[in-house]
Design a protein that fits this description.
With 411 residues, the chain is mostly helical. Helix content is 71%, strand content 1%. Strands 1-2 form a two-stranded antiparallel ribbon. α1 runs antiparallel to α2. The model is unreliable at 1-13, 95-109, 120-130, 147-164 and 173-182 (pLDDT under 50).
Amino acid sequence: MAYLPFTSRKGAARPGKEELKRTALSHYFRGNRFFESKLWDKASEEWRHASQLWRPQDGAAGRRTARYLRLRAVLILLFTVLVVHQALYAFFPRDPMELVLLSANQQLQSRSWWERWLDTGRPQAGDDHKITVREWWSRFKQRMRGSGREEVARQGGIRPRISERWADLLRRYGRWGPFVSWDLDYSVISGNGLSRLGEYDTAVKILEKSISEVSEREKLADLYQSLANAHYYRGYQLQPDGTAQYDLPQVGKAARAYEKSLKNKPRPLSYGNLGWMYFLMGDYDRSERFSKRALDMNANLHYVRLNLGLVYLVQGKHRRSFETYYDVLRRNPPDEVYLGGITDLREIVREYPGRYSFAYLMVGVLSLKKGDLATAREALTRYLAGPAQGRYWKELAGQLLEQMAMENLER
């Protein structure tokens, strides 16, 4: 005879604990008798019923178990998401140039540890660039050659020297990332990092050597752009007054490198920088053409618009110059944009004393917008004391000075 555990029917009173305990004991003793009679199966069944009745399922305990199971499922899901997140960004690392230049954004330095840990990179979405058969074959050959590079690295090749500085470069200019990965372009990283450290000659050597070994257009564009920056800053000398002196032969090398970068991949930043290179070399037509090309691709490049205003200024196109500068003012960029424009105007005044007095008017306008009233007043006063530039501009400078004087009186 089979015995089933006691269950209350619908509408019947649920038995109390004492009754359940007595029923369980009866099953237990019956199981003992079956055991003595060597009826093992029946004994086991009686003891199982006794066990079920002795510790009945409690509703609250069942609910707690269900909540625990749901919580465990949620935690497993979160853990899975984090693992997939890390794996995804491990397969799609951040652009190496971003790793070196991360410190340019001050907000990144104030992030919490958790935010920095989560920000392992940004998956690189596919772009419009079509990979040709030649580029694919070039990548394939580089991968095949890469299998033998580890032995070269252990014997003192170029890779260990770059890798040894990888930690230092990221510690200074970015966050920690994967220490060794063939997907990262160490040449671009080390070239930009060494340029930041002021070791321009070493940066140029590494970048030029890497260019001779690469045929992929995307990487060539990055390498030539990094090489252009290294040449430019090798000829850049900051003066005590905040302005800069430029070594024009180095500027010329930078311009040629930017042109080669643009042949491999057109970028608004490269067009804008190339326009500035040609301005420094006095080729204002090319400077205007490349600056406009950059603004056509990205209208928010404020520094390029300031450079274009400077081109019009030195060409004597004062109205176009003013309109270009005013276009920057109405966009309300950060104060450092105005500071950069003022510095460029001061360099023009320093290099060509008395030749471009209209620059004083623009220094006054930019300084007034920036909130530097002392510099604005000095620049506008010097403009009015200079040679005539047209009645309209003189009246504008006078009105701005009167406006500042009225504001001082109201305070």
